[in-house]
């Protein structure tokens, strides 16, 4: 299972997938032309990590995402919830800018249905 | 074919009346959409609702890119939607709108969808959004089928729309979202 670092573009976020630590980070803005295709490497990585029974720390630090990306984020969280339900070790962190109430509320909405550890953190 | 004189002055006058911050007519692409988005961010940099206005513009533009019934092939042999996008400022607020062709068979679905959304309170829209986001992707959708709900949640007041029939197959669909200025 390989680690992966995808650089950000104007319409897609930076993605860091570190296999040793089981750490995934999505940082920035997300409105790619085809969100499902863009995030495919993340799902491939998740299934490899889960097959190896490793712990996962998933960190979102986003400024903006469109509705197609929102659906993909929901899919990622569903995937992590399933792993958690099967006994996998999972932790999600949702980082939002201090004054970004919309992003804070979005995190709260996403986590409302989940029972896995989900931490909200603000940053300056 | 003779070289025609095109009266651009008439078009110029008509568009000037609307005081447009951004206007585009033609074949969209992800690149064009990104540039128009940058223009909005530059011209509205001091506006408190800029993130919401930007987000609504991107949803409308990506709807057009993916679903406009008028399509053209670009340099990369990829298909993209054709239409009109505008952002307008007036004394009380902003107006973001898109216009593109749709198949007549889509009119009923779109009308019912928008009317349903317009009838909902902010709390009802929030639950509707969450419910739709958690359901299966619609078959012909590249997203989650929540674009219009998101536009309604972010903007102020009901969505305004109209269909202008072209022929037995196609209509021109215009949809507008509004934002009020806070002071």
TrEMBL record, chain A:
Query: What organism is this sequence from?
Result: Leptospira andrefontaineae
Residue ranges of every copy of the SiaC family regulatory phosphoprotein domain listed in the record: 6-122
Top-level taxon in the UniProt lineage: Bacteria
Kindly provide the name given to this protein in its UniProt entry: DUF1987 domain-containing protein
Q: Which Pfam families match?
A: SiaC
